[in-house]
Amino acid sequence: MTTNTRQVYRSILKSLTFIGLIVLAFFMIRSAVQPPNYQTKQTAKPITIDISDIQEGQIKIIRWDDKDIGILYRTKEMQKLLPKQTIDKRYFVFINSGGDINCPLNIDASTKIHLKDICSGYRYDGSGKVIKTNSRVHNLIIPPHHFIQGNKMIIGE
User: Fold this and answer.
1) Which long-range contacts (CB under 8 A, 24 or more apart) does 107-116 make?
2) What CA–CA distance (Å, rounded) separates 17 from 23?
3) pLDDT at position 89, please?
4) Whole-angstrom Cα distance, residue 92 to residue 83?
5) For position 110, what pLDDT does the model report?
6) Which of 7, 38, 73, 128 gets the most CB atoms within 10 Å of its CB?
7) Mean pLDDT for each 10-residue chunk of the chain (157 residues)?
């Protein structure tokens, strides 16, 4: 290879490197100056649920905001263990996924007063607080809801 060819390749390589640095600097400056484009999450519309068909000790599962929502009709034993500031002692509304791998919850067959993650075995009390806390496991998430007209509730507002 001759010296002229090497110089041509070297000039091309230097030019491409220079162009690359200019493009990189442009995007870095643009991202520093331009405010971030936050896309607002489209929230799900509120839904009205008839809860008159839930039997004591049962969980009704409905779908809202791409999540399974559990509505537990608490047993008398569960209600006795609740703190005073509960919205409605009879019902507990929660996002039906617990533990660290988000498995659904069922009533714990051994105690009949706790919810149990069917995959990991983590247990929750009747208000959604984890029993025997583990650093990876958090309390259950409670979606926005309120009760109307006796046996109806609105989830999502």
Assistant:
1) 107/57, 107/59, 107/72, 112/57, 112/75, 112/77, 113/75, 113/77, 113/78, 113/81, 115/72, 115/140
2) 10
3) 84
4) 13
5) 78
6) 128
7) 84 95 90 66 81 90 90 87 77 84 82 83 84 76 88 88
- What's the one-letter identity of residue 78? M
The token pair that represents 84 in the structure block: 């005073």
Q: Can you give the pLDDT at residue 70?
A: 92
Q: Are 124 and 131 in contact (CB under 8 A)?
A: yes
The answer to whether the CB of 146 falls within 8 A of the CB of 153 is: yes
- What is the predicted pLDDT for the residue at 14? 94
